[in-house]
Design a protein that fits this description.
five-stranded antiparallel beta sheet; alpha+beta; three-stranded antiparallel beta sheet; Chitinase A, domain 3; 10 strands; 327 residues
Length: 327
């Protein structure tokens, strides 16, 4: 009995409102119950849930709480639908509304493609869509039309806001201002050992000069190398500043005399050198163009959102639908 009462409550509330038909008015543009139902597509949603989780389906359709949840979902969809209608109107105000003929041609071509790929007649496709819970073929066409109009409105508005390209002058100015960003430091392939014993350091240096392997040196003196690879010039996290002065004035293949810093002794071999420098404008022009274009796109997006927000504030939106489930 309770189940029947809940269903009757839902059906009666929908039938009562169906007489009015218009659920919202956005700047004089009516949103009908049919449009809202197409967007929410509760029928297909419930069919999908029933297939995957019968218990959840039963709770949704046979309890007051379940029906209230479905109602909250539909109200959220209505809010999204109103926003979409507003953006379409925003595009119209900006003079970049998509061409109605192009949208209709797109819908016709999509339907023809579906019919061809599925080898169906329009009547068969209509029945198939109904069985899937997606409404009639005409419902599907209306939904495709609206989705296409909305997506093209977005594309057209953003295209209008992002009209400027990146000029060569802008690229050059950015390069001159951010040269350090494109400067690569010199790199040194170093082998460095550190010990607190001068005699050990002298002996270890001779092994380095002789070309003894790093592993053998480490085993012999029980010392792991402080550096064994490439490091950026003047990286004082790896080597004290005063030692870098000696390294940067050495030629490739040099093993420096043992150097003392405080109570520690350093053995340093400069195995190889890669000279750094600043990349030319030609080398980085495309990279800079992409970066500046991305910045302009971000600025355009912020501008679109801000202007659309202002448009919404000055718009007149009347929601006529009154829920009997959600107060």
């Amino acid at each position: 009995m309770k189940r029947l009462a809940v269903f009757l409550f839902l059906v009666l509330s929908l039938l009562t409102f169906a007489q009015q038909d218009i659920v919202a008015v956005v700047n004089g543009r009516n949103i009908t119950m049919d449009e809202w139902n197409r967007e929410a597509n509760v029928q297909k949603l419930l069919l999908d849930i029933q297939k995957t989780n019968q218990t959840f389906y039963t709770v949704l359709t046979n309890t007051q709480e379940g029906l209230a949840l479905l109602e909250r979902y539909k109200l959220a969809v209505l809010d999204q639908l109103i926003t979409k209608v507003l953006f379409i109107q925003f595009a119209e105000k900006k003079g970049v509304a998509p061409d109605d003929k192009d949208i209709k041609n797109y819908v016709d071509n999509e339907i023809k493609k579906m019919l061809t790929e599925a080898s169906m007649t329009e009547a068969e496709l209509n029945n198939y869509l109904v069985e899937l819970g997606m409404g009639t073929l005409n419902d599907y066409k209306e939904k495709l039309y609206f989705q296409r109009k909305y997506s093209l409105s977005i594309a057209n508005v953003y295209a209008q806001y992002l009209t400027a390209s990146v000029s060569d002058a802008e690229v050059k100015a950015y390069y001159e201002k951010n040269k350090e960003k494109y400067t690569v430091p010199s790199q040194y392939d170093l082998l460095v050992f550190k010990t607190n014993n001068k005699t050990t350091a002298d002996s270890l240096r001779q092994d380095v000069i002789r070309g003894t392997s790093v592993d053998d040196i480490s085993k012999k003196y029980n010392i792991s190398p402080l550096i064994n690879g490439w490091v950026n010039e003047n990286d004082t996290t790896k080597l004290p500043k005063n030692l870098w002065l000696l390294v940067t004035n050495s030629i490739k293949g040099t093993t420096l005399p043992v150097q003392q810093v405080g109570n520690e002794f350093y053995v340093i071999r400069v195995r190889d050198i890669k000279l750094g420098g600043t990349k030319t404008l030609n080398d980085v022009a495309e990279e800079i163009k992409k970066e500046l274009l991305a910045q302009k796109q971000e600025e355009a997006t912020k501008k679109v959102l801000a202007d659309f927000d202002e448009f919404k504030k000055t718009s007149k939106v009347e929601i006529r639908y009154k829920s009997n489930l959600i107060k």
